[in-house]
């Protein structure tokens, strides 16, 4: 930004600055964590009250706004054991330190703009978040968020061994759902529950002294994320692009917010907006919201039919926090908004509604195409690294073999032949002290390692790993066998496997384990294979899905077809 402005000071610049905060995993330097020690020992119920009082004092919620009740599905602070409270307080200390660290980085950006002398005439739009506070951590939080993303609820017993290192790179942590609820004060619910404002609402700050004369003013007109681009275009005096690189552009759904800059009472222009995520859905229209909560983020339970959902009605022009359900009192308005939701959903390709959660990670179950398609064999070579799950052959929930052709220069060969994902879940085929090994890492909490007893001599060898699944269902365990040059050298049993996803970030690597280490037998950043890998072939057996999974696949294909149409 400084370089561009120094070289072409008369040329406007655009910067999109998106941090990893405060998304899980909650990682932050230790010094930031220490600043919050003991600050959350009062728990989430008390924090909810404290935050609401502060919001009223600051004027960021209307004077008549009501504090909504904690949902029954979220436990009270008083119901937690001493161990759970100790763990939960530490989780929030990490989260708060993460937030402060991020604020400082935003502050550096502001200071730089000031030093450049351009702050007053820069339209600075600060969106505090991308959704409501996240509840994927479950009732006790999660040492490894990937468990939650696979529909597996972590427990205090799993989390407590990681208490001292919580927030360090050796954890992939998320906080308990009570903190997410308190973070969404004064609204109901959390991220993913798009039916309620707790799942969708964020603070928004707009700073442009050269154009906006009011300071610290509040604007209450309904505003949605689709309003940002139209605001930027109008501010810059740019027309809407009709075509980009030969592709005709669809009109923006949003409206510019500039009309509200000079008049806090200006008539609202974004008058209608639908919401939908995992079957949770709502519609906003002219100060009213109709909402239907369908599913809950941390529960992998069978959801009711969409037709059985209970719809609620809120007059948010008068009831800021959606505290008073008027559905029973005003069925005509509810019906009007339900019909409008259907109209907007059709227009925006929302139907058919897909209410699955963790299943979507696994393309084979989701019914979603991936790069491999129906292939049952993939051969990879040294140097192929970072292959994410949708570009690598899918070994989840099926039997498979990994066959590596290698040439060893001596009998002391070490290093990774092939690995997928990392320390928080994955698998690796490697050599240690000249011996072949395979390890399956189940979310970093259970490991199955099998290895050959003999050192392999220099020369050509075939190292093969075979997994035979117990049953065609997500997460099933199975038998593990290791072969060298056609001879069985080790066996083991993997009690359970990761059902839907290994990692959202770490891929498969040939000749190394490029990011966090799957196995503790080798180090991160120092595990390259010291022999020669000719090739590695992964062969998978066709999935024999259960009836429920086949139904899920058909739903996924139906959704995909609808999106394509």
Key terms:
single chain, 565 residues, alpha+beta, Alkaline Phosphatase, subunit A, Jelly Rolls, 2 domains, five-stranded antiparallel sheet, 19 strands, globular
Explain the overall architecture.
By secondary structure, the protein is α+β, with helices and mostly antiparallel strands. The chain has 2 domains: 221 residues, Alkaline Phosphatase, subunit A (3-Layer(aba) Sandwich); 182 residues, Jelly Rolls, CATH 2.60.120.200. 22% of the residues lie in helices and 21% in strands. Strands 9-19-10-15-16-17 form a 6-stranded antiparallel beta sheet, with no helix packed on it. A 5-stranded antiparallel beta sheet has the order 14-13-12-11-18, with no helix packed on it. It has a 4-stranded antiparallel beta sheet with strand order 5-6-7-8, with helices on one face. Strand 5 and strand 6 form a beta hairpin. Helix 3 runs parallel beside helix 7. It is globular, with a radius of gyration of 27 Å. It starts with a helix and ends with a helix.
Fold topology:
Layout: H1 2-7, H2 30-34, H3 44-58, H4 82-116, E1 124-128, H5 145-149, H6 156-159, H7 177-183, E2 203-207, H8 228-236, E3 243-244, E4 247-248, E5 272-277, E6 280-285, E7 288-292, E8 311-314, H9 331-347, H10 363-366, E9 377-380, E10 400-408, E11 415-422, E12 425-432, E13 435-442, E14 446-451, E15 459-469, E16 476-484, E17 487-496, E18 508-510, E19 532-540, H11 547-564
Antiparallel strand pairs: 1-2, 3-4, 5-6, 6-7, 7-8, 9-19, 10-15, 10-19, 11-12, 11-18, 12-13, 13-14, 15-16, 16-17
Helix pairs in contact: 3-7
